[in-house]
Amino acid sequence: MENLPIDLRDEIDALYISAYKLLEANDVDTAQEKAEEAWRLLPEPKFDWDVTLSFVTGICKMYRELSLHEKAHNIINELLDSDHLNDYDDGPLFLKATLYFEQGEFKQAYEWFAKANSISRGRCFVEQPKKYKTFFNEYNQ
């Protein structure tokens, strides 16, 4: 993996920060535009950079907040298919689970939470909204 030039990294980070501030202000259209602009700035191949996981998370969380689940799934699926993840990278699996959860597709959510949980030995739920761990613990009871 290559290191993304710091000036480009800073520019992309600033766009994501701006996008989330716009989302908080309920300016969803502009928030989406800023997040997508940030994603477009990440050079191809998008999954070859040191910051790939961070930027995949940023755009997919934005799409999740905007209920654009299919777009988020597509990016995560591309990442999963790219062969750029290590065996210990549970973040994309957890993020995919949260997408399914927010879509109300609980069987798939549980399956992806279980994969992330297995890889991370439960650490994937740390610093995440409690609703995800509660769901995971109670789903099959």
Question: What is this entry, summarized?
Answer:
This protein has 141 residues and is mainly alpha-helical. The protein is 69% helix and 0% strand. It has 2 domains: 1-80; 86-141, no CATH class.
User: What does the average pLDDT come to?
Assistant: 94
The value of Rg in angstroms is 15 Å
Secondary structure class reads mainly alpha
Percent helix range: 55-70%
Spans with pLDDT under 50 lasting ≥5 residues?
A: none
Question: How many structural domains does the protein architecture include?
Answer: 2
User: H/E series, N to C?
Assistant: HHHHHHH
Portion of residues in beta strands equals under 5%
- Terminal CA distance reads 42 Å
Total beta strands: 0
Question: How many H/I helices?
Answer: 7
Structural overview:
- The chain is globular.
- It contains seven helices and no strands.
- The longest helix has 19 residues.
- 69% of the residues lie in helices and 0% in strands.
- 30% of the residues are buried.
- The termini are far apart.
Q: How is this fold's topology laid out?
A:
Blueprint: H1 6-24, H2 28-41, H3 52-65, H4 69-81, H5 91-103, H6 106-120, H7 130-138
Helix pairs in contact: 1-2, 1-3, 2-3, 3-4, 3-5, 4-5, 5-6
Summarize this structure as a short list of keywords or feature phrases.
69% helix
